[in-house]
């Protein structure tokens, strides 16, 4: 069997690590061991913060919806409750976009939710009080 030397591959791996840490300060961008450590930590932080970003965005959407709905006279919690009761399936991302960029559309959604429609009248009787 022929002899396999791994110098080429080891050098390639080290170069790729140093290339990924380009722009980091001090030894993190120049020394192999510090660069490898920095990459491991950066990967962990980026994973955790991708999860945090989703939570942060949802909080931001809630704030935008609350601000838009309070301008029109309905607090956030009552709006969400009414949406669920009316079985209107709009997610918070879309609602916050409407509240921020399309206030007329958001106002129409609030009108649909806050309409004082009673339960549908029972069919059959002519003397229905609900009409």
Question: Which characteristics define this entry?
Answer:
131 residues, rod-shaped
Structural class: mainly alpha
What does the overall shape look like? rod-shaped
CATH first level of the domain at 58-114: Mainly Alpha
CATH architecture of the domain at 58-114: Orthogonal Bundle
- Based on CA atoms alone, the radius of gyration comes out at 29 Å
The main sheet comes to: none
Average of the residue pLDDT scores:
90
Helical fraction equals 55-70%
Do you know the CATH topology of the domain at 58-114? c-terminal domain of poly(a) binding protein
- Terminal-residue CA separation: 95 Å
Task: Give the low-pLDDT segments.
Answer: 127-131
Number of strands: 0
Give the helix tally. Answer: 5
The CATH H-level superfamily of the domain at 58-114 is Ribosomal protein L20, C-terminal domain
Query: What sequence of helices (H) and strands (E) makes up the elements?
Result: HHHHH
Strand content: under 5%
How would you describe what is shown here?
This protein is mainly α and 131 residues long. The protein has a domain at 58-114: Orthogonal Bundle (c-terminal domain of poly(a) binding protein), CATH 1.10.1900.20. Helices cover 66% and strands 0% of the residues. The protein is built from 5 helices and no strands. The chain has helices at residues 7-20, 32-71, 76-85, 92-101, 103-114.
């Amino acid at each position: 069997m022929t002899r396999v030397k791994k110098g080429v591959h080891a050098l390639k791996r080290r170069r790729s690590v140093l290339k990924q840490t380009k722009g980091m300060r001090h030894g993190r961008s120049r020394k192999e061991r510090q660069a490898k450590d920095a990459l491991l930590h950066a990967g962990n932080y980026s994973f955790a913060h991708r999860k945090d970003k989703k939570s942060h965005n949802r909080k931001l959407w809630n704030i935008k919806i609350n601000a838009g709905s309070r301008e029109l006279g309905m607090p956030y919690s009552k709006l969400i409750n009414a949406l669920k009761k009316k079985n209107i399936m709009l997610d918070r991302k879309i609602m916050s976009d409407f509240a921020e960029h399309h206030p007329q559309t958001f106002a129409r959604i609030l009108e649909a939710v806050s309409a004082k429609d009673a339960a549908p009248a029972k069919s059959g009787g002519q003397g229905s009080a609900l009409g």
